[in-house]
Protein: UvrD/REP helicase
Organism: Ferroglobus placidus
Amino acid sequence: MKLKFEKKFLKKLSKLPREDQVRILAKLKIFEETGRGDLVKLVGYDNIYRFRIGNYRLKMWIEGGECIVFDLEKREKAYK
């Protein structure tokens, strides 16, 4: 699966501590290569998924073989 990143996601990622950035990018690389990860389709939305990495939640849009990561939130804010 091919990953693409929106500017909003990249901006939020750049503000995180370096070790969190590395962990998130490593998990996304594994997902890109194998398709494995904690991925759940969001109820009520077409092709929008939540990807869990530790205390962070990523939102992504998946269609065909392409995945666009568009948002990043801490767990506490993601479910409000």
Remarks:
- DSSP finds three helices and five strands in the chain.
- Residues 30 and 46 are 24 Å apart (CA to CA).
- The longest helix spans residues 18-34.
- Helices lie at 7-14, 18-34, 75-78.
